[in-house]
């Protein structure tokens, strides 16, 4: 009898041997999977953490600024989240931890996502013009990071999608001070973007004489570049140099050694005819600039305005000029009137309004002379001016969202709120205001719908405390950036490999949700469900932190005694612990099967993140870690792993030595048979990897930020209507 195996058997046996040896050798030494985040212990100022910064047990590396929110009419608010980038103006709280960077908050001021940990821990991470934009046909996040001289685009999982170089395109060295942080406009359909630029030059004698200044003086020229979104190639460029004379400035040459910022561009937008709408703070002027030759087509406001005001409306130090709508004869534009400029030249007080306001202006460009008038205004909630920065956003439901940024140093007291945002109804009614009571700065704030799907795992902290003669396991869970979580399920167990008992289900409650179990769970994992009961992700298995001197004989329930708990319907549960030994005796494997096959909905298996069998612990506090009894498990596992590796190595050598005695070379016929068997195997595997593709899919989760419009279509401001103004001109507008 010939001792010859079939080609399939030869291949299968050898592959299985290699696979078995490889996995057994690596198992005890496997590098941990990527943590959901890098744990850092932050030493915060206790006097500030409770009232001015959020702190989280599950994310001790985050210290998000805390908003003071006042809601005047919740039902009238437009749906959406706040997008704001916060940075340190005076470095007052350098010991608070990671908080400088882009943020997403909900309408109650609760944190949704912190981008403070995106940057290096060795420097402040500042972002500017943080907002939702379309890139590659998808909702994305964009912002400017001046310390990297780049514009960053993130996808819905908060991973970097584009890294766009800004600043001096001809220089390979990043110069943060020469990075213009004021505006980033992305035109996805045209594969183009607009970025701003800064150049530095010396004033000539003629220009210095115009402003009655004697001596040498450096000057900053501002401009913008139209560039390819894909390649970064500059397609068109404009600068205030040679186009805007220094005589238009409303500010003094206050710092000639560093450079006189006489123009200070802060927004640019491409108009439907291809020309550009540009706002310059230090000339208090809005310009229309030709896309053909860069010439000034008209000026609105400032020293050389081409428009005649109908009524009171002159603005000072404005920001964020945007086109609202237009026709052949009229333009509607919005802007934030800051009502002040720094270091004003004498005689320019006539341009100022008593306090900051959002404006919608109607420009009649068909009349001679051209005219402009205010058709709607939204006053500063505290009737104060705004020192610098800020923006005005018209929301889809016709509400108005304003970032007043920083209060004027002439009106604010030290450590009074410096950052203020507000939302207004179309008629100007104040619906919401929110402030930060710390000395920080924002540049702009926006409101958008958003669905965040982080590719990380939920972060979990678990500890046990004594409550009388009993014990209580306290678990805190968060998932930075997730917007679809509705319910958290807590599972516990006595051993890491068997965390299979459902202990409680709790509705999501803010960025970090607390779950409690009346008893001791040595190991826990937390599962995220959406509003349809579909599983989104599961955290890693976490070992519960125990107090110093804790032993099982202290009257605390033995881990093996953990009782089963009923699995409540995630759409009909409350915030109470679910107890009911008689209602459920199934382990987590049964729950997993039910959820993965019955409730996955629009989330297929590839989208579900499950790390419940991970061997990684969350990092714990050094003090509590020192109190843990020494665990010999890993030493035993290490020894067993070495033994298995050695055995596998010897077996492989023996196998390679004796293999030629048992197997013949592979013939052509055998090769054809092998390929046929491989085709069958891969077909079967594909069916297993993609079960039920033809089954009817459940309804996709809806956007939690979307909702109904904020009321009926009444006028914006007093007697204001977009279409009416454009159809009839400005006649009769109050």
From TrEMBL:
Membrane-crossing residue ranges in chain numbering: 632-655
Signal peptide limits: 1-36
Record keyword Transmembrane present: yes
Start-end of Basic and acidic residues biased regions: 566-575, 709-724
Keyword entries, A-Z: Membrane, Signal, Transmembrane, Transmembrane helix
Polar residues compositional bias, start-end: 576-587
InterPro entries: Arylsulfate_ST, ASST-like, Quinoprotein_ADH-like_sf
Record SUPFAM superfamilies: Quinoprotein alcohol dehydrogenase-like (SSF50998)
Region span, Disordered: 566-599, 684-734
UniProt name for this protein: ASST-domain-containing protein
């Amino acid at each position: 009898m010939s001792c010859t195996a079939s080609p399939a058997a030869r291949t299968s046996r050898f592959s299985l041997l290699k696979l078995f040896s490889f996995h057994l050798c690596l198992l005890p030494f496997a590098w941990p999977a990527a943590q959901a985040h890098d744990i850092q212990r932050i030493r915060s100022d206790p006097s500030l953490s409770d009232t001015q910064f959020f702190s989280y047990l599950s994310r001790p590396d985050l210290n998000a600024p805390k908003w003071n929110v006042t809601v005047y009419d919740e039902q009238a608010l437009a749906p959406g989240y706040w997008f704001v980038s916060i940075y340190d103006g005076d470095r007052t709280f350098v010991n608070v931890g990671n908080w400088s960077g882009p943020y997403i908050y909900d309408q109650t001021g609760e944190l949704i996502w912190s981008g403070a940990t995106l940057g290096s821990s060795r420097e402040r991470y500042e972002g500017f013009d943080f907002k939702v934009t379309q890139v590659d046909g998808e909702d994305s996040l964009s912002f400017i990071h001046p310390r990297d001289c780049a514009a960053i685009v993130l996808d819905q999982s908060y991973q970097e999608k584009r890294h766009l170089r800004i600043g001096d395109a001809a220089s390979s060295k990043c110069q943060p001070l020469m990075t213009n942080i004021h505006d980033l406009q992305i035109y996805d359909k045209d594969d183009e973007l607009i970025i701003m630029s800064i150049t530095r030059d010396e004033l000539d004698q003629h220009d210095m004489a115009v402003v009655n200044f004697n001596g040498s003086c450096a000057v900053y020229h501002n401009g913008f570049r139209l560039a390819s979104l894909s390649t970064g190639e500059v397609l068109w460029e404009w600068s205030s140099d040679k186009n805007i004379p220094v005589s238009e400035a409303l500010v003094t040459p206050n710092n000639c050694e560093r450079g006189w910022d006489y123009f200070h561009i802060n927004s640019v937008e491409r108009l439907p005819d291809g020309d550009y709408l540009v706002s310059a703070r230090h000339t208090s002027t809005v310009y229309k600039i030709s896309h053909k030759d860069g010439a000034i087509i008209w000026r609105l406001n400032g020293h050389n305005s081409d428009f005649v005001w109908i009524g009171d409306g002159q603005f000072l130090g404005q920001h964020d000029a945007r086109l609202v709508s237009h026709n052949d004869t009229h333009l509607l534009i919005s802007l934030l009137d800051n009502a002040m400029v720094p270091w004003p030249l004498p005689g320019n007080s006539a341009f100022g309004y008593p306090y900051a306001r959002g404006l919608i202006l109607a420009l009649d460009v068909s009349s001679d002379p051209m005219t402009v008038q205010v058709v709607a205004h939204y006053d500063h909630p505290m009737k104060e001016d705004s020192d610098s920065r800020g923006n005005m956003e018209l929301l889809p439901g016709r509400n108005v969202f304003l970032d007043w940024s920083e209060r004027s140093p002439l009106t604010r007291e030290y450590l009074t709120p410096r950052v203020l945002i507000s939302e207004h109804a179309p008629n100007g009614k104040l619906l919401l205001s929110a402030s930060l009571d710390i000395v920080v700065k924002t540049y702009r704030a926006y409101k958008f719908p958003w669905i965040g799907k982080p590719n990380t795992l939920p972060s979990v902290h678990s500890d046990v405390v004594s409550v009388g003669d009993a014990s209580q396991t306290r678990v805190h869970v968060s998932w930075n950036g997730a917007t679809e979580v509705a319910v958290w399920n807590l599972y516990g167990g006595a051993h890491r490999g068997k965390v299979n008992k459902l202990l409680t289900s709790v509705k999501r409650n803010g960025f970090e949700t607390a779950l409690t179990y009346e008893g001791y769970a040595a190991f826990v994992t937390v599962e995220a469900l959406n509003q349809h009961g579909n599983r989104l992700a599961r955290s890693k298995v976490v070992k519960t932190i125990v107090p110093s001197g804790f032993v099982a004989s202290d009257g605390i329930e033995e881990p093996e005694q953990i009782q089963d708990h009923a699995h409540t319907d995630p759409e009909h549960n409350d915030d109470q612990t679910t107890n009911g030994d008689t209602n459920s005796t199934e382990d987590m494997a049964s729950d997993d099967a039910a959820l993965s096959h019955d409730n996955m909905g629009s989330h297929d298996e590839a989208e579900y993140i499950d790390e419940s069998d991970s061997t990684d612990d969350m990092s714990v506090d050094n003090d509590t870690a020192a109190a843990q009894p020494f665990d010999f498990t890993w030493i035993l596992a290490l020894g067993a792993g070495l033994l298995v590796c050695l055995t596998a190595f010897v077996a492989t050598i023996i196998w390679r030595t004796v293999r030629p005695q048992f197997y013949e070379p592979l013939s052509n016929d055998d090769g054809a048979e092998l390929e046929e068997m491989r085709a069958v195997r891969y077909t079967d595997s594909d069916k297993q990897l993609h079960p039920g593709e033809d089954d009817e899919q459940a309804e996709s989760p809806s956007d939690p930020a979307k909702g109904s419009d904020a009321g009926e279509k009444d006028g914006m401001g007093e007697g204001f209507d977009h279409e009416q103004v454009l159809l009839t001109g400005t006649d009769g507008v109050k």
